[in-house]
Design goal:
296 residues; alpha/beta; Rossmann fold; Glucose Oxidase, domain 1; 2 domains; six-stranded mixed sheet; 8 helices
């Protein structure tokens, strides 16, 4: 797996949007954060641009991302927000030059599409908070992103919860937003999970649809040969008038009940303020016991 070079003081981070529109005012806290780390900031043409709900039309978002990938003066690419739209541009991007010397691509949620292409082309990516969230993020969340960007050790120890399934797993960490992974199954962006640790999170979904998506991953053999499973925030879940009968944790345990890999629930990552950074594509060790540790 090809790892991006660590940033240094004076390096430049490019902020753009591959999906929903966003204003400069909404990313001021992120710009201040990068400046506090002695980093320079370049804003893409997609910031403050509007095409219905998107940050410009598809080709404008393609051109902005391609420009940032190919510009040697930009050392990392930070996606400003999620929403929807990255899947519309992914087939138009040329990564042939980028993979020779990759730089950090940072984001989560809809940015799961870019994490998936990282898996296909074998370069590491940063699943981490985005500029729109910085003002609400916990200090630990922001510090974890800084550690990733500057190449410092990233390890976590968190309390266990009753629903966890004990065990030890090693392998590359992959995954992202469950809805996005579900939408990409059967395509060239579908993940190879064999021998890997899978991370899942989601937001604003009905419980029956969590069950549907988990069953889809099961039918696509995502859990066969999987080393371990980490579940982050399952945030703002909904139920129908006639209850589904299980919460998100119970659904995941039910769908994966025939497998013996360890499972960690309530990991601080995803659509939560305490959104800790993860390095996708990097080998990690997950230990689920009286406490949970994740070490890269």
């Amino acid at each position: 797996m090809n790892q991006p070079k660590p940033l240094h003081k004076g390096a430049t981070v490019g902020i753009l949007s591959t999906a929903r529109k966003i204003s400069i005012a909404e990313i001021e806290a992120a710009i201040e954060l990068l400046h506090s780390w002695d980093l320079k900031v370049v804003l893409g043409i997609t910031i403050d641009l509007e095409e219905h709900q998107f940050a410009g039309d598809d080709m404008t978002r393609v051109l902005n991302f391609q420009q940032f990938m190919d510009d040697d003066s930009i050392d990392a690419i930070w996606c400003a927000r999620g929403g929807y739209g990255t899947i519309r541009i992914i087939d138009h991007l040329d990564f042939s030059r980028f993979i020779q010397q990759p730089k950090w691509i940072i984001g989560y949620s809809d940015v799961t599409v870019l994490h998936a292409i990282g898996q296909q082309l074998r370069f590491e990516t940063a699943h981490a908070t985005m500029p729109i969230n910085v003002a609400e993020n916990s200090p630990a969340s922001l510090e974890s992103l800084r550690k990733v960007l500057f190449g410092e050790n990233l390890n976590y120890t968190i309390p266990t919860v009753y629903s966890n399934k004990k065990g030890i797993a090693t392998g590359e960490l992959i995954g992202g937003n469950l809805s996005m992974l579900y939408s990409m199954t059967g395509s060239n962006l579908s993940l190879d999970t064999t021998g890997k640790i899978l991370f899942l999170e989601d937001l604003d979904e009905y419980l029956y649809h969590i069950d549907r998506m988990m069953m889809n991953l099961k039918h696509n053999k995502y859990f066969e040969g999987l080393s371990g499973l980490i579940v982050g925030g399952m945030t703002d879940m909904h139920d129908n008038t006639i209850p589904f009968g299980k919460n998100a944790e119970e659904i995941i345990l039910d769908v994966t009940s025939e497998y013996d890999f360890p499972i960690c629930f309530n990991f601080p990552a995803g659509h939560v303020d305490d959104n800790r950074a993860l390095i996708f594509g990097k080998k990690a060790q997950l230990e689920v016991a009286s406490e949970v540790s994740l070490r890269f």
